[in-house]
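Homework help board

Subject: predicted structure for assignment chain

Our instructor gave us this sequence and asked us to write out the predicted structure in token form, then describe one feature. I got the tokens but I'm not sure how to describe them. Can anyone check?
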Amino acid sequence: MRVFSLLTALLLTAPPAGAQSGAAPLPQVQAPAGGSGTVPGEVQPLAPGARPAEALPQLTLTPAIAELERLEYRGNGFIEVAHGVALLPAGDQGLARRRALALEIASRALAARPELSEVDVSVYDRATYGGFGGPLPLFTASVPRARLAEFRAYAQGQGSYDRVYEGGAPATTPPTVVARVREDALTFFGSASERLRQSLTQSVSQSRGGERDGLLFRGPTNRRVAALTFDDAPHPLYEPLLLDLLRRAGVRATLFVIGRNAVAYPYFVRDMVEQGHEVGNHTYHHVRLPGLSPAQVQAELAQANAAISAVTGQPVRYFRPPGGDYSPLTLQVARQEGLTTTFWTDDPGDFNNPGDAVIESRLVSHLRTGGIVLLHDNAPEAIDVLRQFLRVARERGVTLTTVGEMVAPR
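My token output:
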């Protein structure tokens, strides 16, 4: 028993086998801070203590559109995209009105700024608007400049258009309140013996690579390949910028999608699949799962699976728990839903906004075979440094790809 206790202590404190010289230590399963067994849920990811991201430039239309709350734009070095948020009052929310408003915003934005390649519009109910993570939009549209005439015809009742969401999805409520909890650790909510088993599974996975007991902590270490993953997809401003960069580099990635976002922006999820990317499950509402009831956990995973598969026509294989927080119940439900719970080896902290130079340095110095890189599709600094990181990976002979491709037998 004394020897077993000593081995246990070593496993919980020693650096994992397989860590490469010069690379950051691999993340270790840890107990929740303060021993709490419950973490409240989270509507949309926030990073407390983070530096605020730089304010996005705003496009001003003259004369102003009364319903337009804001019109932001951003580029990726190749293209620029704008996203407009509009709020409609009760009694003025018919589909024809939503279409007409989206058309006015898109057409006037494209005319006002010739550099724009695309304008995306999200129309909300003014009374219930709660930001990007609140109640679903009433209507969304993606309008590339080359398809403006087609969208105009659709908005005027002439034909169909495939890059819209016309509303109608049932309203849902996150099972818990918003929590501002950092997303920089793998936190296991369970007993000491359960945590020991998790640490043992993680140690073997990080040493040998591959899936163990329905969990994936690291890919194979005998091939020069790593997985590139993005959480919290899709975002209507950043998704076109991210997909454009990946397409230009010829790189495929795994995008962990929030179910409600797949409902509101189905055309971006279709873009992911059409461009060869893999779509994973990141729960329906982006909630922290430990502390929820079995029924709530099952609903979060099953509803996200259903929302994603309804768009892609494909089953979902991989799941990432928001914040890296999980428990025995999380793993049990994930297995029941046919999902492999997937973590990461390299997290540069892009959502903390430490600066482009810091993010790039962390990405480059932590690059390793079998690694799983964690970025966020709506983190501005991830967009800024991605092009350079992909170039460095190519130069070092490390192929970045999807999780499924990385672990596929050879």
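Reply (TA_rk): Your tokens look well-formed. For the description, you could write something like this. The longest helix spans residues 294-312. That's the kind of observation they're looking for.
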